[in-house]
Design goal:
Elements: H1 2-16, E1 38-43, E2 48-54, H2 61-75, H3 78-85, E3 90-102, H4 107-117, E4 120-123, E5 131-133, H5 144-154, E6 169-177
Antiparallel strand pairs: 1-2, 1-3, 3-6, 4-5, 4-6
């Protein structure tokens, strides 16, 4: 069902730059009526082309997924949209379960928390140099120091500057849905 949604959203965006409104016809589960943050990835089975998300929502989950999916498509290049037209699409939706800002910490305890919880991490949320890793980063990289260094690089700050109180760290737990 997610592939069908991805294909319909891509086709609608490609043809008219409109947003696919995902409604109750797609999902009957009550979870989708709740207000939760969401991350959306689109691509092929071999690669993620684009992903975006938010931790918070004032709308129900279905509206939030529609909005984020539309923004994912808006951020894709025309070349990638055209390329995806003729491919088997992969759509993954991550529902945010909980989140917390980390203000002051000692590095060792923070790294222990990362190892145990395996959360998603956002640096500088709502700033121009923000960047996010979904929890799946822990499937590829096990060392918290490397993860934080990679995150810093993506956020265009020096390797150890993530510790600077000027830079905010938000940890979140999420789970992927598949339908």
């Amino acid at each position: 069902q997610l592939r069908s949604i991805a294909k319909r959203a891509l086709d609608l965006y490609y043809q008219s730059k409109e947003m696919l409104i995902i409604d109750g016809d797609f999902f009957e589960n009550r979870l989708f009526q709740s207000q939760k943050g969401v991350f959306v990835e689109i691509g092929t089975d071999k690669e993620t082309i684009s992903s975006l998300g938010n931790l918070y929502s004032d709308t129900n989950l279905l509206e939030n997924i529609s909005f984020v999916l539309f923004n994912v498509l808006q951020n894709m290049s025309d070349q990638n949209i055209t390329r995806l037209q003729n491919q088997e699409l992969h759509l993954k939706i991550w529902i945010v379960d909980s989140h917390e800002k980390v203000n002051q910490f000692d590095t060792e305890r923070f790294f222990d928390k990362l190892i145990i919880d395996r959360p998603g991490i956002i640096i500088n949320e709502n700033k121009e140099n923000s960047f996010c890793f979904l929890p799946k980063i822990w499937d590829k990289v096990y060392d918290p120091a490397i993860v934080m260094s990679m995150l810093s690089k993506e956020a265009r700050i020096d390797d150890d500057d993530w510790k600077d109180p000027q830079n905010t760290i938000t940890l979140f737990k999420s789970y992927p849905i598949t339908i």
